[in-house]
Design goal:
The complex is a heterodimer of chains A (167) and B (764).
Chain A: E1 11-17, E2 20-26, H1 32-38, E3 57-60, E4 63-66, E5 78-81, H2 94-101, H3 111-124, H4 130-136, H5 148-162
Parallel strand pairs in A: 1-5
Antiparallel strand pairs in A: 1-2, 3-4, 3-5
Helix pairs in contact in A: 2-5
Chain B: H1 5-8, H2 18-22, E1 38-44, E2 50-56, H3 58-62, E3 66-71, H4 72-78, E4 96-97, E5 109-110, E6 116-122, H5 125-132, E7 136-141, H6 148-151, E8 167-176, H7 178-184, E9 187-198, E10 207-213, E11 218-223, H8 228-239, E12 246-250, H9 267-276, E13 280-283, H10 286-292, E14 296-307, E15 313-325, H11 335-343, E16 354-363, H12 377-395, H13 399-406, E17 415-416, E18 422-423, H14 428-451, E19 455-469, E20 483-487, E21 493-496, H15 506-519, E22 525-528, H16 544-571, E23 578-581, E24 584-587, E25 590-596, H17 597-605, H18 610-613, H19 616-621, E26 627-630, H20 635-639, E27 645-659, E28 666-676, H21 683-703, E29 732-738
Parallel strand pairs in B: 1-13, 11-12, 15-16, 21-22, 28-29
Antiparallel strand pairs in B: 1-6, 2-5, 2-7, 3-6, 4-8, 8-16, 9-14, 10-11, 10-13, 14-15, 17-18, 19-27, 20-21, 20-26, 23-24, 24-25, 27-28
Classes of the chains: A alpha+beta (167), B alpha+beta (764).
């Protein structure tokens, strides 16, 4: 006889990722991060699966969440934004430009999570200073940059936003 | 000379390959999905030391979706043991040096928690993990030892019974006359220093996708290694596949720091692909990563330093005891760290008359030992760094005075230390001048903080960091696949480099180098790296700006000469009358006369062909392409085989620290570094690298430690428990450059990639 993992029926969920609609069947235990990756959004990086590194951060219904800490079924009927959805008509988002201009990327693995967390921060408030930025990204680990240029980039993006450059 | 040089080399040009990272389009190894691909998951031992009595895989095999389960017996049947990576038992060294016979999966007993005892190959990663729970292993637990000192005791549990002790290697590195130095000394300063076990733990864990083609016998293996050529040799040997049939392709690499120079656990996915005929992926989880990836540090210095009353250090005798965990010669090459640590204990010390370091590499029940942003260089730096402080304390001389008194002067260079290393160039007085200004500021701030009832401290250190290694009797012996540069008729320049970009930015900075030297537009250059079918020896041991850049410069110069000779022949002028800039060859005295290098390529290759445009000497030598391949070897190592490293970066660091009197928690408030990496190619990238290195140093000094209990359980195998610094812990970091070019590299570059974790000698 063959063992099978406790037979739990797959569940049908609907979600919108970067304005594209999906209706899919998933195992209830499937992590949202894994589902997003399987759908092709490989900017969602797996780094720890315990919620500390933040490389899998996406925006879910307007909040930055760590997608490895959610089951895909919990995202039913929600709207998700990943880094792939930041660019508009091939043009880099001002936040992305700020990362490039400030040498804020090295190996790039933490970058998508950093972008989504800082996008969340900057979208919600204009009261930005270095301390606010540093606190906001404590849930995102980076091993390459010492955060110095990432902080600079986010502060620079805040300036761009003040200058009306944002979407 | 080269007109276009300053447009590129030395400029803060933005990284051109950032776009893929910013848009989520990078391809890391976990992003590779192949239809029909299987997934590998390892079952790790829950015991630090135990005999495997039996393994029952029958229930797990029944689980739907499980394709295969491999154990130690399968390894014995199909594989050679893990290859030796470093061996100093041979002449001229003849050191006491043991290697181990080990397989990726344990065969008879386990020696550290997490050591694989079985591997499941399944259709889905979730099912692979389900199956792990159905494997039944019966163990006979044995006493464990997790402390090097205890492991050296007579009745300690033995990891390898056949050795009779736990000492994997033991040797003495010495030079000069130690007895005389101690006789001449006014006093002897003794100290002991231990640094906690820690490692890099890059945010991207290790992984691979292995594809074996039984029809051709070719293994194509995608992974995230730093060094495809080294991986190729290692895997070919273990898998018994001719090396010519192994192709390692390193995908975008999410950080390395020396932690991605080990391939033991990638052998099983490759074997599984061979046995099943399907592609197999392995992507470790974070706990597995903490438990089974290379560790570093965890060494102790026991030192006696011979000093004069004025603070001059004239000699030392020291023991260096390194806890290499389960081993440091096969899974990784960590036993070499003790050698480099001993060699670089001499650091920037100017007045040494005699030095002797006795090294013990001791095995314990922890994961194996290999490089982490340092390969023993930092052990050495910690030795003289501590010596400065202990001498200062005992002689009541300010530490900055001890440093000033003892460091090498510019006129000393090139300088051969009594213990081995051969230094190229440096300017400590200039570095100290800069850093001491900041140091005074910090001292003022310290006073201010203390007057407000806070605890505060300042720290200073001066260091030497070697780069560009060729380690004998080791896989790190300057193997170079070389560099190839090719100008293509329909546009574009291909640059093949040996250095894989793992975050240090070479994909862009190497284009800067070629653009500058050859005289082509940077955006017309495509840098190709990370494929063992082409090149791919490194990076390791900070070689990108020594070996990598020097090979690029050498190839660019040869190619440039060939292009100029060809055009000179076409135009009936002298090559000296011509120059190349921004992809066009022009006549110096009549810049309107010009031709694109791509038109030259067309002429050489097809219209009308080399026979009609190239000069006779090139035709006769067969140099009839616009493609040049070279390798490069350190001219210093060529002359002095004892000079394991080619160039030496130097620096002086200062830091201001505050300690919370209630909790004892220390925080670095501000950090400054005066840094000399020779000629810089892209200062902004160098600075960014330094930020990262310093953050890792701060982490190591204040937050990070792998904590093993006496039973050999790692108590903090997650990012939740292992305190990697976040943005809140890292201060502002100011970088100042001094540029003292190296005489031993083509451009005078030394290294930009890495500053080892020398910077945390903060004295509280």
């Amino acid at each position: 006889m063959h063992w099978e993992v406790k037979k739990v029926n797959k569940m049908r969920i609907k979600l919108i990722v970067n304005e594209k609609e999906y209706e899919i069947e998933v195992e209830p235990r499937k992590l949202l991060a894994d589902l997003l990756r399987e759908l092709g959004y490989t900017s969602v990086h797996i780094g720890c699966e315990d919620g500390k590194c933040g490389a899998c951060t996406v925006i879910l219904d307007g909040y930055a969440v760590k997608s490895c800490q959610l089951f895909a079924v919990q995202a039913n009927n929600s709207k998700i934004l990943t880094v792939e959805g930041l660019t508009k008509n091939e043009e880099l988002h001002p936040l992305q430009k700020a990362f490039n201009d400030n040498f804020a990327i090295q190996c790039g693995y933490c970058t998508p999570g950093m972008l989504m967390t800082s996008y969340d921060l900057l979208s919600k408030t204009d009261k930005i200073d270095e301390e606010v930025v540093r606190k906001a990204i404590t849930g995102n680990l980076c091993r390459c940059t010492g955060y110095v240029n990432i902080v600079k980039a986010i502060l620079n993006a805040a300036e761009r936003k003040k200058g009306g450059e944002w979407w | 000379m080269v007109v276009s040089k300053e447009i590129y080399i030395g400029q803060n040009i933005k990284r051109k390959h950032d776009i893929k990272f910013l848009t989520g389009k990078a391809t890391y190894v976990n992003d590779i999905y192949i239809p029909g691909m299987l997934y590998c998951a390892y079952l790790g031992s829950p015991y630090a030391h135990a005999r495997i009595k039996s393994i029952d895989i029958s229930e797990a095999l029944k689980l739907k979706g499980v394709v295969m389960i491999l154990t130690g017996n399968d390894c014995i049947k199909h594989l050679d043991p893990l290859p030796v990576t470093i061996d100093f038992s041979k002449p001229p060294f003849n050191w006491h040096w043991r290697t181990v016979k080990a397989y990726p999966i344990a065969t008879d007993k386990v020696r550290f928690v997490g050591e694989p005892v079985a591997a499941v190959i399944a259709e889905d990663p979730y099912i692979a993990e389900d199956a792990l729970e159905l494997i039944k292993v019966e163990y006979e637990p044995l006493p464990a030892v997790t402390d090097a000192k205890k492991a050296m005791e007579k009745d300690a549990p033995l990891l390898y019974e056949e050795w009779g002790d736990n000492i994997q290697s033991h040797f003495i590195v010495k030079g000069g006359n130690v007895e005389e130095a101690f006789k001449e000394a006014d006093r002897v300063v003794k100290f002991r220093y231990h640094e906690a076990r820690h490692s890099g733990f890059p945010i991207e864990p290790r992984g691979c996708v292995s594809i074996y083609d039984s029809k051709t016998g070719l293994l194509t293996h995608y992974n995230n290694t730093q060094a495809p050529l080294l991986a190729r040799q290692y895997m070919a040997k273990a898998l018994r596949i001719p090396e010519s049939n192994v192709r390692i392709i390193s995908a975008d690499v999410g950080g390395g720091f020396g932690n991605k120079l080990n391939w033991g656990l990638e052998i099983i996915p490759a074997l599984a692909s061979k046995l099943t005929g399907k592609p197999v992926k392995w992507f470790e989880n974070r706990r597995e990563n903490f438990l089974t990836q290379p560790h570093n540090r965890d060494y102790t210095w026991e030192a006696e330093v011979a000093v004069k009353n004025d603070g001059t250090i004239i000699g030392y005798k020291a023991k260096l005891i390194v806890d290499v965990g389960v081993e440091g010669t096969n899974r990784g090459s960590g036993c070499g760290c003790g050698i480099v640590g001993a060699l670089y204990s001499a650091g920037p010390l100017r007045y040494l008359k005699g030095a002797e370091v006795e090294v013990f590499n001791v095995v314990t029940n922890k994961s194996f030992f290999c490089a982490y942003r340092g390969y023993g260089k930092d052990f050495g730096a910690r030795f003289y760094g501590r010596a400065f402080y202990f001498v200062s304390r005992e002689l009541k001389i300010p530490v900055e005075e001890v440093i000033k008194k003892n460091v090498l002067q510019p006129e000393d260079y090139p300088f051969k230390t009594i213990i081995g290393p051969h230094y190229d160039s440096a300017n400590f007085p200039e570095l100290l001048n800069k850093a001491l200004k900041k140091y005074s500021e910090y001292k003022e701030k310290k006073k201010e903080l203390i007057s407000k009832g806070k605890l505060a401290g300042v720290g200073i250190t001066a260091w030497v960091e070697p780069s560009g290694a060729a380690v004998p009797w080791c896989i790190y012996y300057g193997i170079e696949g070389g560099t190839k540069i090719s100008v293509l008729p329909e546009g574009g320049v291909k640059v093949y480099t040996d250095i894989t970009d793992i975050g240090q930015g070479t994909e862009s900075t190497y284009a800067q180098v070629v653009a500058g030297i050859l005289g082509v537009k940077m955006n017309e250059i495509r840098v190709i790296e990370g494929d063992s079918d082409i090149t791919g020896a490194g990076p390791w041991s900070s070689r990108g700006a020594t070996y990598g850049v020097s090979a690029l410069v050498k190839a660019s110069k040869i190619l440039k000469e060939r292009i100029l000779k060809t055009v000179a022949n076409m135009w009936k002028v002298n090559p000296e009358d011509l120059e190349i800039k921004e992809s066009e060859v022009y006549k110096k005295d009549d810049p309107s006369k010009r031709i694109s290098i791509y038109d030259v390529a067309r002429a050489v290759y097809f219209w009308p062909g080399a026979r009609f445009v190239m000069p006779q000497d090139l035709l006769e030598k067969g140099e009839t392409t616009l493609e040049v391949q070279v390798s490069w070897f350190s001219p210093l190592t060529a002359k002095d085989p004892g000079a394991v490293y080619t160039t030496h970066v130097t620096g002086v660091d200062v830091a201001l620290i505050e300690i919370d009197p209630d909790t004892g928690i220390a925080k670095v408030l501000d950090y400054y570094i005066a840094h000399d990496a020779g000629k810089l190619i892209n200062p902004a990238i160098v600075e960014a690298q330094l930020h990262g290195g310093i953050a890792q140093g701060i982490g190591a000094a204040l937050y990070e430690e792998l904590i093993y209990n006496e039973e050999g359980q790692l108590l903090n195998p997650t990012y939740m428990d292992y305190l990697m610094p976040t943005a809140a812990e890292i201060p502002n970091i100011t970088v100042d450059h001094v540029e003292t070019p190296s005489p031993f590299t083509e451009l005078g570059t030394k290294e930009w990639v890495k500053v080892d974790l020398y910077q945390h000698h903060q004295q509280l």
